[in-house]
Write a structure and sequence with these properties.
The protein is an alpha/beta fold and 726 residues long. The protein contains 29 helices and 18 strands. A six-stranded parallel β-sheet has the order 3-2-6-7-1-8, with helices on both faces. This is DNA 3'-5' helicase.
């Protein structure tokens, strides 16, 4: 009876789809779980229910996750339910444990070889052996190629063909990478060390080639759960197949729309093909989103709804379960510094309003984008932490560049324009102003140094305020020494240790996390999607990155991009993944529904003709009609004149009564608020308010200007307006 009661308790509070996961029969189960749908609760409840009902023993379960954090969470949940003994580990941790245990048997009594923490040192030596001088960034890119090959079960002699077929963007010619790969493998063997892929291969080899090992492993583990199954690579799938040994008691959980690591060898093909490989599989879709508001969920659905390609076949339409929240905000800024300043200012408002800083995240496509937000948050006094990467001024290439810039003050003439001087100085660390090199690490290094050049351009273009009598603005004659002092100041400010702060993270490192408030920044063509996404498959992965970013937000979501990278720079287009943007350059507020037909076409034409209106407080481009009337974002502080608003309201009521029309026909509420906030004193200022055209200016202009000037409603009266209209 107690066991039955405990099993029923496990089912309590689950939605119908989650219950279907828990109660599915033994055998292959595929759980297609959208973001925020409670997948961890569902699969841990499945394990617990099967154990508590006597179907399986907890010690015979192996649950595989992709992060140690996820494994710890699963173990914790199972312990709370009262189901001990379940092994929840990452692929690497599970393989390491098995290889260490069986090493004496597999290696004739010898212990397992030392495990490399990083490939970079050995790869650097291997590159030197084949005539390449690889710096740290190039070595990291070569190591990445070797990891991709080994995870994809590609041998050194097969690399050239496999890389070409996979359209890999290699840091060197594929044949040269293959030479480094070969030299790397030889160096490892001669040094008696193995890497993480070797460890997975050793686990596979131990099971496939040693029946006694296979019997012991399969006797221990009889039931399997694999989380984030869309991120499995061929080597990991080979290990899973070895563990299973032809059995099919496996539950896999994944979301094809969150496949964002294909560059590492991960593939959603195993998730997509699971029902075909296991004809008797139970397939359950979890689509009730408990994380995000319906407004955030709606935008996520709109973005992923445009997806194409193989992964789109398993696209899930989420249904938000939380109470309604604010609409996602879409902002356009003149340049990236303005965007960063506005984001920081809003973070300050959120923190002052009670939102913990740790519940706010700023997410971007590349780590090199973090510097502007580090600086902007520092200037407004909001603490931050950088997730999954070093702070900008702590990066090795930036520290080296700062040394080179200081040294250049002795060799570059002082009259050299600052941007030119910085570019020349950075040649000492191998940077060139040409396009970024191939390879992720080398490209990221190039972009970080390019960010220093951009800082120099902005610093040189910023007017300086000097105390000449009263403070006066003069043109800055910035020297390289001045710029070095500015960099040192920024670095010192940003090295203040913080524990609880706004999270700055790339979209890749944000996977699996969530926050109350999320800022998605830099959403322009060339950044997201990156200009290096050339094939349809690569472009679709960029779309999925945005989808992952959107689904990190629980309550409040901001999306923004800058029309130019730096002040006065070349114009950029918004990301093609934002379905609410008018492609001609205008747009709608994020989350607004679009309608078809002639009416939509007419509105599109009107938007193309509409002049650009910016928020008079934060400078963002205003897209929604009500915001354009107000002349500010709805969340920016209002400076409304309450007495003027009351006079305008009373006057409007009298005019509407005299004309026998609804009050909104005279002026809408939004127009009254705009008038009371902006307080126009001249006809030019009055007609600048969106919604007041020549007709209404002729009808009501004189009366409104009089009210703004301080006249009472009795002094104006509806009669005066009627006289104007006649």
């Amino acid at each position: 009876m107690a066991v039955h009661s405990a099993a029923e308790t496990v089912l309590a509070g689950l939605d119908p789809e989650q219950r279907s996961v828990v109660t599915a029969p033994a055998g292959p189960v595929c759980v297609l779980a959208g973001a925020g749908t409670g997948k961890t609760r569902a699969v841990t409840s499945r394990i617990a229910h099967r154990v508590l009902t006597g179907g399986i023993s907890g010690r015979h379960v192996l649950a595989v996750t992709f992060t140690a954090r996820a494994a710890a969470e699963m173990r914790h949940r199972l312990a709370l339910i009262g189901v001990p003994g379940v092994q929840a580990r990452t692929f690497h941790a599970a393989a390491l444990r098995q290889v260490r245990y069986f090493a004496p048997r597999l290696l004739s009594g010898r212990a397992m070889p030392e495990l490399l923490d990083s490939k970079v040192r050995v790869v650097t030596l291997a590159a030197a052996k084949v005539g390449l001088r690889a710096d740290r960034a190039a070595a990291r890119d070569l190591a990445g190629e070797i990891e991709w090959a080994k995870s994809s079960l590609v041998e050194p002699g097969e690399y050239v063909v496999a890389a070409t077929r996979a359209l890999r963007e290699t840091p060197y010619e594929p044949a040269k990478v293959a030479e480094v790969f070969t030299a790397y493998e030889r160096l490892k063997r001669s040094s008696g060390v193995i890497d993480f892929e070797d460890m997975l291969r050793a686990a596979v080899w131990g099971i496939e080639e040693h029946p006694d090992v296979a019997e012991q492993v399969r006797g221990q583990y009889r039931h399997f759960v694999v989380d984030e199954y869309q991120d499995v690579n061929p080597l990991q799938q080979r290990l899973l197949d070895a563990w299973l040994g032809g059995r099919d008691d496996v539950t896999v959980v994944g979301d094809a729309s969150q496949t964002i690591y294909s560059f590492t060898g991960a593939t959603s093909a195993y998730l997509i093909d699971f029902p075909r490989r296991h004809r008797a599989a139970t397939v359950v879709r979890l689509v009730r989103d408990y994380r995000s508001t319906p407004q955030v969920v709606g935008l996520a659905n709109a973005v992923i709804g445009q997806a194409r390609g193989t992964e789109a076949r398993l696209r899930l339409e989420l249904h938000g379960q939380r109470p309604p929240g604010p609409e996602p905000e879409l902002r356009i800024f003149t340049d990236e510094p303005a965007e960063a300043s506005a984001v920081a200012a809003r973070c300050r408002v959120l923190v002052d309003g009670g939102t913990p800083a740790k519940e706010i995240a700023v997410l971007f496509r590349t780590n090199a984008q973090s510097e502007a937000y580090e600086k902007a948050l520092t200037e407004v006094g909001v603490p931050y932490v950088v997730q999954g990467a070093e702070r900008f001024f702590e990066r090795a290439e930036v520290r080296q560049a700062m040394v080179a810039l200081r040294a250049a003050t002795r060799s570059i003439p002082g009259e050299t324009p600052l941007p030119i001087a910085v570019r020349e100085a950075l040649t000492a660390v191998g940077w060139t102003p040409d396009t970024a090199p191939p390879g992720g690490a080398a490209r990221e290094r190039w972009e970080a140094l390019a960010a220093l050049v951009q800082l120099a351009e902005e610093y040189a273009a910023t007017p300086e305020v000097l105390p000449i009598g009263e403070a006066a603005t003069v043109e800055r004659q910035a020297s390289l020494a001045d710029f070095n002092d500015e960099l040192a100041r920024r670095a010192a400010q940003q090295h203040v240790p913080t524990v609880d702060g706004v999270t700055l993270a790339s979209l890749h490192s944000a996977k699996g996390l969530e926050w109350d408030a999320v800022f998605l920044v830099g959403l322009s063509e060339g950044t997201l999607p990156t200009s290096y996404a050339r094939t349809p498959e690569q472009v679709e992965e960029e779309r999925r990155l945005l989808y992952v970013g959107i689904t990190r937000a629980r309550q409040w979501l901001w999306l923004s991009y800058a029309s130019a990278r730096s002040p006065g720079g070349r114009a950029r287009r918004p990301s093609r993944f934002l379905p609410q943007l008018d492609r001609s350059g205008g747009g709608e507020r994020a989350g607004a529904a679009r309608s078809g037909g002639a009416g939509a076409a007419k509105r599109a034409v009107e938007r193309r003709r509409a002049p650009v209106v910016s928020c008079r407080i934060c400078g963002a481009t205003l897209l929604a009609g009500a915001d354009r009337k107000l002349g500010r974002c709805p969340t920016c502080p209002s400076d409304i004149d309450e007495q003027l608003y009351e006079r305008l309201s009373d006057w409007r009521a009298r005019v509407a009564g005299a004309q026998r029309v609804p009050a909104y026909v005279v002026f809408t509420d939004a127009t009254l608020v705009a008038l009371a906030e902006r307080r126009p004193g001249r006809v030019e200022e009055l007609i600048a308010i969106a919604g007041i055209g020549p007709r209404k200016l002729g009808l009501y202009g004189e009366a409104v200007l009089a009210l703004v000037a301080g006249a009472t409603v009795d002094e104006i009266g509806p009669e005066k307006t009627l006289e104007i209209s006649s």
